[in-house]
Batch of 4 targets.
Target 1
Amino acid sequence: QQPVQSPQAVILREGEDAVINCSSSKALYSVHWYRQKHGEAPVFLMILLKGGEQKGHDKISASFNEKKQQSSLYLTASQLSYSGTYFCGTEYSGAGSYQLTFGKGTKLSVIP
Amino acid sequence: EPEVTQTPSHQVTQMGQEVILRCVPISNHLYFYWYRQILGQKVEFLVSFYNNEISEKSEIFDDQFSVERPDGSNFTLKIRSTKLEDSAMYFCASSDYWTGENYGYTFGSGTRLTVV
């Protein structure tokens, strides 16, 4: 079962903020966030392992609400380089799973 | 920074032919994966590999597919009797699961497979 991402697409002007959400119908062990630019491989941004955890670097941060089985990625003061498709990947609790299941992605376009 | 290397970058093959996609994971990583992405769509899990055997595989990974680690460095995906719908970008990834919190996957740059 894949996680559900929203929105599917968003257009921002440079300097604006965005939030991308990722939710699951199953209990989560971890949430990964990746960014993929057109024609390139997904690049790891961060992983959240514990409920309530928040992480960030530069102006990109994320939170993980274990009870709600969801995670949010926050992009503040967006830059042109933030453009790309953002994927959340989820690992499910209790399965001893070595499988990361990706959502369909959120296409972010930052314009001048 | 360590990289996952994939070859070839692009492969064109005729329907029914066999292809082998090659990957060199990061040397101290323990877990290896194959994913595929049909143009413009999500990244789909195919298989994970640990300790020289398959850990998990998806419904997509049927008898047409196989993986091998023929030596200490290479990790291959073989697709037998290719079909048109196998056309996709195939990504190899590796991770070092036990180094703590930053065990995100490192993806290779992919092999674009075109079946004609």
Target 2
Amino acid sequence: AQSVTQLDSHVSVSEGTPVLLRCNYSSSYSPSLFWYVQHPNKGLQLLLKYTSAATLVKGINGFEAEFKKSETSFHLTKPSAHMSDAAEYFCVVGSGYSTLTFGKGTMLLVSP
Amino acid sequence: DAEITQSPRHKITETGRQVTLACHQTWNHNNMFWYRQDLGHGLRLIHYSYGVQDTNKGEVSDGYSVSRSNTEDLPLTLESAASSQTSVYFCASSHSPPGQGRSEAFFGQGTRLTVV
């Protein structure tokens, strides 16, 4: 069984300040972990993924995530928010031949 | 370029009608998925297929069916539409099982379905 919990439904930041979106997961097997982004009225785009290689994963648009097995976490960070980062972000877990399980999403709001 | 397309993008239908949402991908991916997205629930898996003639139920499959007669298409049918099925529907495909993380799952642009 697998599940993912996104700890914040909404996160508000000012442009130029750091972004932290929190995600905890559970999985019976070695997990693959993903972050997807969805801009308004758009499909989902892969930001980054962890698949048991380096624990610090770099993605597109300056985003990073760190896999911490001891904390069962996979938090998404960015040093400096941009207005174009405003979107909904989904943490996703999968393993082996399982399908993907999505978190409920975190809406990132960026103010000028 | 290879892509995944959904049609229609928007649809309004009446309660009790049968509705089919189309999903077509040109990557030649074996694995295809249907999700629904509702506020506060994220994306939930409806049905999925790991190849031609293979279909499997997901988390919220009641009232939905799929068939896979070729690699490119996985149509989603609502047998008798209900207001609870008003949602945004996303189709996705991937080369290898997505849980392995070896290949990316690509998503369509979504179909917004309203049942009145």
Target 3
Amino acid sequence: DAGVTQSPTHLIKTRGQQVTLRCSPKSGHDTVSWYQQALGQGPQFIFQYYEEEERQRGNFPDRFSGHQFPNYSSELNVNALLLGDSALYLCASSSYGGVLETQYFGPGTRLLVL
Amino acid sequence: AQSVTQLDSHVSVSEGTPVLLRCNYSSSYSPSLFWYVQHPNKGLQLLLKYTSAATLVKGINGFEAEFKKSETSFHLTKPSAHMSDAAEYFCVVTAYTGTASKLTFGTGTRLQVTL
């Protein structure tokens, strides 16, 4: 049973560029959440997708957008990259279940913005 | 709003000695609480979770945590540390908004295990 997978593993971009990160959820999961983890900090919630809709958003600007596909996989898009967007981006999948939900994380995509 | 406070940013223990990583939580309702571990340059692995069942929760690799409502604590323990336990540990609380569930992480505790 494959766990949560993310691609690419590493990425280098320059300021102003756009980036797309991809996530495939664990088998049987229908919900995908995205987190940003800056160096030396805990992950911060970006948003969550369920039924192809953004259900909740954290304190991130509109430059961060996402999408969920009918097969439950998801993309995170970041436009007009800033140096401060350099971080590990983590995808987590779960079965939609409210407060009892358990999220399982992928290995992450490390983004470096130069 | 839900939040967690990890009381130690860094803990150092000798191999074979007990581990205690402290976490206090704040929640306006009965929370779901988790401990995740992150090894260097790796993603997050679920260690254990509390979801209002038994207050003593057993996880993987010999870790356990006890939910104490009166103290609003959810401390992580292990009787005997192993070198492979060296990693960053995050205490996490779930906030359910009615439409989505999001995790709020503590700032992390780096566990160092020495010979």
Target 4
Amino acid sequence: EPEVTQTPSHQVTQMGQEVILRCVPISNHLYFYWYRQILGQKVEFLVSFYNNEISEKSEIFDDQFSVERPDGSNFTLKIRSTKLEDSAMYFCASRGDGQETQYFGPGTRLLVL
Amino acid sequence: GNSVTQMEGPVTLSEEAFLTINCTYTATGYPSLFWYVQYPGEGLQLLLKATKADDKGSNKGFEATYRKETTSFHLEKGSVQVSDSAVYFCALSEGAGGTSYGKLTFGQGTILTVHP
């Protein structure tokens, strides 16, 4: 069964450093999403991406965040200058055209020191 | 804006007990409703869904009915197993089209532990 994959599974970085989180969505899906879950809190929507552009973003998704689909298979989330409060589990998800269900990857746990 | 509220956890049950996890929602339109499950060390998996009022979603013995009049989507299972131990998330989506591209709004999650 096709699945969404994410790399790395864990990332530790120093405050102020840039990180790139990578996702490979299900191959025929057209809608892509990033969510995050700070420890002990809700899963929160960050951004959705369709037709090679951001379609919707939350207040959390400020100028330090960016997303890209560089090669037609990967979908990346970049955090330009990490802060302590960016420490969280980051989930990628994808959805097919006309479908309701989003399929999630296993997540990347990011720790900012 | 949209919101989802789940019952406080954690929930601890003995095997074969009856499970209910309450979920209520607030939405401006006619959302689709979902239950996702997260097993230890894994990502979010869709458990079941319902896309319109009075629909019942079911999977692996779990059920939930979309109740528009009470804005609820409570998760139930008649006899839980140790393997059901996980975190359960209720979520809604306004669906694709219009100004929404189907983003999910989640509840806070309920930790379920089932003992033998």
